[in-house]
Amino acid sequence: MTHAGIDVVDVRRSFGPVEAVRGVTLTAQPGRVTGLVGPNGAGKTTLLLMLASLLQPDAGAIRIAGVDPIADPAAARRMIGWMPDALGAWPALTARETVAVSARLYGMTRSQAAERAAALLAHVGLMDLADAPARVLSRGQKQRLGLARALVHDPQVLLLDEPASGLDPQARIDLRLLLRGFAAAGRTVLVSSHVLAELDELVDDAAFLVAGRSVARPDEQPARARAWRMRVAGPPVSLVGIAGALGRRPEEVTVDRGTFLLAFEGDAAAAEGLRALVGAGLPVAEFAPAVGRLEQAFLDLGNSPEERA
Ligand SMILES: Nc1ncnc2c1ncn2[C@@H]1O[C@H](COP(=O)(O)OP(=O)(O)OP(=O)(O)O)[C@@H](O)[C@H]1O
C-alpha cells in the first residue's frame, strides 16, 4: 500500500440503516485513468467523499499515495484534486475569482493566484467567461470551472464525480485529452459515472461497484457470448446467406435497424466469424461489438448470479 496511486481495502460506510458502501476494495494506478462504474445509488459518491477526506469510513483502509486521509487529512488534501458533481459555493464570484480564491486557500500569493487562475481557465477553455459571475455559467461551463478549481494546487491525484455530465461532445473530447495528459504525467485519475459510453472513451481501467460492494472485473470472468453488429454494403443480403457462411441456423441471426446481430464468444470467435463472412463473399462494411466495452462488462456483471448474492 505504498504506491503513488489510490488503494482501498474493504471500506464500509453506513448512514443510519442505509449501508451505502459495504465492502469496497480497489486500486487506481498512477499513470492511468480509472473509471468507477456503477448504477445510481451504488455508492460511488460516498466512496469518493471518503477518498477526498470529506467523510469518515466506518471500517477499512484508504491510502492516497501512501497517505491515510483520515489520519492525515491535510497531507491527503495537498495531493488530491476533488471535483464534485455539482460546483458548490460562491455564485457571486467570477470564474476567475473562484479559481484565484481557491489558489489563495492553498497559500499562493495574490499575484501567483491571479497567474494560476488565468492559466487554468485557459486550460479548461473558459477564458472568454473569466469575468462572468459563476452563477450565470451553464452546467457544462460550471463543470469546467470545477475542474479548474480541482487542479489549482497541481495535485497528484484527481477524483472526479460524474465530470462529463452536462458537457457537449467537444467539451467531452477536451476533458478526455486533459485527463489523459494528466495521467500521462504519472498522476492518478479516478472518475465516476453511471453513463458507461461516456467512461468507455475515457478510461484505461475500471472498478465496478454494485450495491455498495466492489465486484470482480468482468474480464477476469469466463468469456460469454456477446453480440456483434454487422452491416453489409450494397443490396440486401439474406439471413440464410449470413447464417450459412457461419455454419449456423437463420434463427441465430437477428435483424436490427438494417443491420445484423451475431453472437460470438469473445474476440477470437468474432474474428473467425468475420473471416468466414468475408470469405463467403459478403460485402461487410461494418463489424463491431454491439455495445461498448464497459457497457458489455456491466451487463455481464448483471448476468452473474454469484455477484448478485
Ligand atoms: N447522507 C446520506 N444519508 C443517507 N443516505 C445516504 C446519504 N448519502 C448517500 N446515501 C445513500 O447511500 C446510497 C449510495 O449513494 P451514493 O450517492 O454514494 O451513490 P452513487 O453511486 O453516487 O449514485 P448516483 O450514480 O445516483 O450518483 C444511496 O442509497 C443513497 O441514498
Radius of gyration computed on alpha carbons: 23 Å
Bound molecules: adenosine-5'-triphosphate
Task: Identify the CATH homologous superfamily of the largest domain.
Answer: P-loop containing nucleotide triphosphate hydrolases
Strand residues, percent: 25-35%
Shape: globular
User: Could you tell me the number of beta strands?
Assistant: 13
**Average predicted confidence as pLDDT:** 86
Total domain units: 2
The level-1 CATH class of the largest domain: Alpha Beta
Oligomer: single chain
- The level of helicity is 25-40%
Largest sheet: 6 strands, mixed
The SS-based structural class is alpha/beta
Q: Termini, distance in Å?
A: 29 Å
Describe the structure.
It holds the Pfam family ABC_tran. Belongs to the ABC transporter superfamily. InterPro entries: AAA+_ATPase, ABC_transporter-like_ATP-bd, P-loop_NTPase. Residues 6-236 form the ABC transporter domain. Keywords: ATP-binding, Nucleotide-binding, Transport. α3 (95-105) packs across α4 and α4 (110-123) packs across α5 (139-150). Mean pLDDT is 86; it is low at 303-309. It contains eleven helices and 13 strands. A hairpin with a 2-residue loop joins β11 (254-256) and β12. It has 309 residues and is an alpha/beta fold. It has a six-stranded mixed sheet with strand order 5-6-7-3-8-9, with helices on both faces. It has a four-stranded antiparallel sheet with strand order 11-12-10-13, with helices on one face. The longest helix has 16 residues, at 169-184. It starts with 5 loop residues before the first strand and ends with a helix. It has two domains: 6-215, Rossmann fold (3-Layer(aba) Sandwich), CATH 3.40.50.300; 220-308, Alpha-Beta Plaits (2-Layer Sandwich), CATH 3.30.70. The structure holds adenosine-5'-triphosphate.
